[in-house]
Amino acid sequence: MHTPEILLLGGPDSGKTHFAGQLYGRLKRNPGLLELRDTPADLSALEEVLHCLENGHAAEHTSAGTWTDVLLPLRDKHGNELDLRWPDYGGEQLLTIFTERQVTEAWRSELRLADGWLLLIRLKKETTYPDALTELANRSSDSNGTTARAGNWDGNARWVELLQILLHVAGLSTVAHLKQPRLAVLLSCYDELAVDNQLPSQVLAKNLPLVSAFIDSIWKPSAISIWGLSALGCLLEKNSDNENFINQGPEHQGWVVNPDGHKDADLSRPLAWLLGVE
């Protein structure tokens, strides 16, 4: 049986933990394109997240040093069976790769074996300097004369740098357009953005134009998919007691916005796209 490796890439506070818990709830109780076909061996981490949501409050952040693999026995809507390896880790590890330019053997192995990358970007948390980008495109005489330099990395530069590091570690060329691994970008906590009728790809290009351009320059169009994701559908706090969550169940909360702009309650759709399930 094919056991695909999907690498979930998300920093701290990107919504990675809640997405994993909600995805597990969907696969188990309210399946769409994918469903659980059996009880996984050890799902204690995801069960804990789901338990918090069932009680109407947010789950704890995954600790920085955590690295575990969860094996999910799945069946797609056509009856095909597969086992999916899903990594669970602290989002700080992705920051460490960026700041220290070092990866552990676990990360190196995952990057080289992954069939697909699931990249979570929470735009609301990104620091950007759009005026600086505009000024760079103008002639020097158009500058406002400021010599100040930003103390923090612009989100555009940080994500492009990080993606280049990950591609290098994975042994992937940036000369020819990539067909593998497929890349699904999830703009997480989409409910906190004012997006009007824009497609997720347009939202990414507007907020992180250099990241959007870099991705388009590296991957074949058929190997990229950009989605909006609200894993919870609303904000939950650690001390909240959301009765809607409690009464309806977390498996009926949350949604994705498909690349074509349609809202869908099936949180497994981006994963199904990565796995080639149509």
Please characterize this protein's 3D structure.
By secondary structure, the protein is α/β, with parallel strands linked by helices. Helices cover 34% and strands 18% of the residues. It contains 10 helices and 9 strands. A hairpin with a 5-residue loop joins strand 8 (255-257) and strand 9 (263-264). Helix 1 packs across helix 2 (44-54) and helix 7 crosses helix 8 (209-218). The two termini are 19 Å apart. The model has no long low-confidence stretch (mean pLDDT 88).
Helix content: 25-40%
Count of runs of 4 or more consecutive helical residues: 10
Number of strands: 9
- Rg from C-alpha positions? 19 Å
Class inferred from helices and paired strands? alpha/beta
Largest sheet: 6 strands, mixed
Range of strand content: 15-25%
Shape: globular
Widest sheet, order of strands? 1-5-6-7-8-9
Helix-strand pattern:
EHEHEEHHEHHEHHEHEEH
- Mean pLDDT across residues: 88
Span from first to last CA? 19 Å
- The low-confidence runs, each spanning 5 or more residues with pLDDT under 50, are none
